[in-house]
Input
Amino acid sequence: MNSQAELIAIVNQYIEKMQYNPQPEGLYAPIKYVLSLGGKRIRPVLMLMAYNLYKDDIQTIMPNAIALETYHNFTLLHDDLMDKADMRRGNPTVHKKWDENTAILSGDAMLIIAYQLFSENQKAGTNLIKAMQTFNEATLGVCDGQQYDVEFESRNDVKEEEYMEMIRLKTSLLLACALKIGAQLAGADEEDCNNLYLFGEKMGLAFQLQDDLLDVYGNPAVFGKKIGGDILCNKKTFMLINALNIATGEDKAQLESWIRKKEYNPQEKIQAVTTIYDKVGIKSICQQKIEEIFEQSLQYLGKVKVEESKKEGLKLFANNLLKRNK
Amino acid sequence: MNSQAELIAIVNQYIEKMQYNPQPEGLYAPIKYVLSLGGKRIRPVLMLMAYNLYKDDIQTIMPNAIALETYHNFTLLHDDLMDKADMRRGNPTVHKKWDENTAILSGDAMLIIAYQLFSENQKAGTNLIKAMQTFNEATLGVCDGQQYDVEFESRNDVKEEEYMEMIRLKTSLLLACALKIGAQLAGADEEDCNNLYLFGEKMGLAFQLQDDLLDVYGNPAVFGKKIGGDILCNKKTFMLINALNIATGEDKAQLESWIRKKEYNPQEKIQAVTTIYDKVGIKSICQQKIEEIFEQSLQYLGKVKVEESKKEGLKLFANNLLKRNK
Output
């Protein structure tokens, strides 16, 4: 078994050595660029850790792990284009460094390369077909999630269940499928595969709620993004939806008025909305929800039929992911 | 064996009955729309015809045939977005009917659905793995071709070989792979698979050169597109590249001057360039090249080890594709 740090190093090494078609360079340079920007490599590492519960020869499934990371980075590339985001991981996004058409076409090629890596790994043997279905579930589900995310921007009646389903699709599914694919490729039985999937799904939900919480209450020095971004764009997060439900009288009117306002001082809006959040106690409600879902995730991991000692890596991973302050 | 008309009907029927996720509707409506706009269904029909050379149960590989058509329509969707084209097959393009972000995301989902259809067809049996590699070759190659096409727009030194390689990737490869996949899924031997691939590759090249020729010399009443589009955007076609090589003195100077001109009367430019084409005899040079490549394509079909009578459908298909006047 490998530690998380070892797996990250193995993933980064594999990505660094990857060979693309030498030509046309204009198509492949943006792909190499995006994949070189780093990141926590959460998805391939989860896949390798799940595989590691049953088998040691992780090199066998490296193409599948890298396929998932390539797919994830493709979604970032196209999402940044759709959001007109200028920066990603401290570097200019592809449509800024090159242009929009390059971002479209290199993104498409990246998605295809992800499928190529995944589907052509003959070492994976007969388990590949089942794993391929899980991969397909993830790739299409993330598109569903992105579509809901876009649609929610122009809606003011998004319900908590709808928000949770959106983040399940957009964020959790890929973690869930990473774990399930790792187990499937190792030949684990269906019960274990599903429990690992649910462990990842719940962990992903808790992770996203935590991310939303940090967007309001994080320490700007360590969070890495500007505080209050979700508040400024009226993102219908778990917190905003619940604050709107709980707040009454003047607080509710204030909150609704800030959502409607087209022109305002950004800092003033962030402060005003946060003050209402504080008054209705949204921070502890959100923390409680995170705790609850995180507990559920660990219960699913508990059901996986391998020695408890082997699960320590995944437990540590989940704890680091959730207890992080950046 | 089924006739071409029967196969088109079967393909259209299958597309019409296809079920997508019911939600989010905003993601799937553009996909249904694009696939409902018709077209000649060349790629799935070629795949089914190649399969038909060996086997009759075409229903077995319908998901693979539809995957190829879905992929092809995905490329049209994203290409139209990149080209800012307003119309496709007499209807508004997706980014016009919806918006640019919808075109990006629905296109991505379409590419994923193509892979889902292709990779999850368990009826295809063990031949699926080889066929999948051919599918990957096609999907990535088309991106390479599109990238070259974009790059050639801003270059004035494109050589004939480069142009031929670009249209091979952008147009021929998908026809070649359609035929090869059909044969692979039917369990044909490697020699037959490769000869069918080369038959398709050469047919595709001849088809694209014919399309370029019709863009200049076609009958506007039947061609379906406006005549002279390639001349107006200085597309480095086989014809323009050769005309620049052959023309001398005043003709060459004139041609180069029209390419450089930023402001002009479109009809005047089309007429002037066509006049130079006529003077250097580019029409017959192009026709001769088409004939030559078309002959090569039939030779490859001739080598395929099935009864000659079975090849009649493909011969007819190729003839119809090339002798068409629209």
